Amino acid sequence: MTDSVPNYLPVSLRQGYTTGTCAQAATKASVQILLGICREEDMTFVEVELPKGKMLELEVLDIKIDYKETEKFPYAVSCAVRKDSGDDPDITNGILVYSRVERKNRAGKEPVTIDGGDGVGRVTKPGLEQPVGAAAINRVPRRMILKEVEKACMEAGYEQGIHVEISIPEGKRLAEKTFNPRLGVEGGLSVLGTSGIVEPMSEQALLDTIYLDMRVKLAGREKKYLVMAPGNYGLEFLEEEYGLEESSVVKCSNFIGQSVDMAGGLGCEGLLLVGHIGKLIKISGGIMNTHSGQGDCRMELLACAALLAGLSGQAAREMLGCVTADEALSKCTEEERRLIMAQVMEKIEKHLAMRAAGRMKTGAVAFSRVYGILGKTSLSDRLMKEIL
Fold first, then answer.
1. Strand partners, 229
2. What would the pLDDT profile of 120-162 be if each residue is shown by its tens digit?
3. Any idea what the Cα angle at residue 330 is, between residues 341 and 241, rounded to 5°?
4. What is the pLDDT of residues 207-243, one digit of tens each?
């Protein structure tokens, strides 16, 4: 009996690196020249360690050095790194990401400050990863930039302050083609990345890879159970909460429905989906491809769940004006969140079971970085026990 989905090997696609990695590398190059660790003429390439330990060497471009008339040491240095999205059809491919670092008198609690310049967006609505008014440079890129500056300062014995400004000259123009304005990021692009690597988004290649991963994980198992997560947030949560290593989890990207289909075709007996509420809320409305280009309705679904849970129309209307699921849930009390999530998880359970069509047991766990575990379907604990 043959499998019900293609069993050929996946197409190999070239990975790229994120805007966050570009900012990290440009910062390392700039601060090393600024502090005299490396000469300008020797700074042709820079090697950086990505968040998960992988090393990457990138070319350094457009070096600019500023001096004050009375000083022989540089006052500020700017370097650029060109974004390479690999085989991913990303509009930011080929853009230059700049980092300008300058000396400052050490003052206050933050000797190293990081901000956005030309072409880096500003957060204008609450609920995003950075506060309102801050540059849209996300948490992981900020951490990696800070690491490079602190390491260089220690190596050079420099004890004063450093200010880092990230800029993307083409950012303002390109941002108009993204979801940034709708999400509450104005004036430019976001500096993103959790792993530092851009995974190619060819749909067929990704589906083939997910299928192969499932087949390998199920091979030789007496009990054929799988746990899957859409992305890095889910992988991190599973490791922190359940001690499950990344190698034990199927990374299904946005392809929830097709992954359920493939698991059923491979004879899986039980499938547990674990994901951030921002993704899983879509499944409560039957949206089985959670990519923003396929459908959103996050706030509408949360507002509907709030009404079903007995909250007022005014509370539901407030949710509709939110940017993220976490922000919407922040409008509620703890008890109201519990009631809302009970409605959401009931709908998620129904849609996963419908997609599985009786071929296997299904379950889901929804979490938030703010609130932790928000909800579980009725079989989730039993499925997790089998998986563990």
1. 251
2. 999 988 777 889 999 999 999 999 999 999 999 999 999 999 9
3. 60
4. 877 887 888 888 867 789 999 999 888 999 999 999 9
Is residue 138 within 8 Å of 191, Cβ to Cβ?
A: yes
CA distance 124 to 122: 6
> What is the structure's pLDDT at 342?
96
Q: Are 376 and 365 in contact (CB under 8 A)?
A: yes
Count CA atoms within 13 Å of residue 212 on its CB side. 12
Q: Encoding tokens for residue 134?
A: 């801050």
Q: Are strands 270-276 and 361-368 parallel, antiparallel or unpaired?
A: parallel
Q: To the nearest whole number, what is the mean pLDDT of the chain? A: 89
Strand order in the sheet with 361-368: 250-251, 225-229, 270-276, 361-368, 372-376
Distance of CA 373 to the CA centre of its chain: 19
Instruction: Return the sign of the alpha-carbon dihedral for residues 317, 320, 323, 328.
Output: positive
Q: Can you tell me the distance from the alpha carbon of 353 to that of 306, in angstroms, rounded to the nearest whole number?
A: 23
- CA-nearest of 26, 268, 289 to 144 is 26
In angstroms, the CA 112 to CA 159 distance is 11
- Residue 46's beta-bridge partner residues? 58
Q: Annotate 311-360 with DSSP letters as a single string.
A: --HHHHHHHHT-SSHHHHHHTS-HHHHHHHHHHHHHHHHHHHHHHHTTSS
| 45/213 Cα distance (integer angstroms) | 35
**Element containing residue 119 per DSSP (H, E):** none
Distance separating alpha carbons of residues 197 and 341, to the nearest angstrom: 33
Beta strands in 112-159 (DSSP E): 112-116, 122-123
Q: Say which residue the tokens 């700039």 belong to.
A: 30
Per the CB < 8 A criterion, the answer to whether 93 and 83 are in contact is yes
Q: How far is CA 54 from CA 15, 25, 206, 243, in A?
A: 13, 13, 21, 22
- Local structure of 365: helix, strand or coil: strand
The contacts of residue 245 (CB under 8 Å, 6+ apart) are: 239
Report yes or no: 120 and 135 within 8 Å, Cβ to Cβ: yes
Residues whose CB is less than 8 angstroms from the CB of residue 32 and which lie 6 or more positions away in sequence, other chains included: 38, 43, 46, 152
Which of 102, 109, 68, 83 is CA-nearest to residue 16? 83
Q: What is the pTM of this model?
A: 0.64
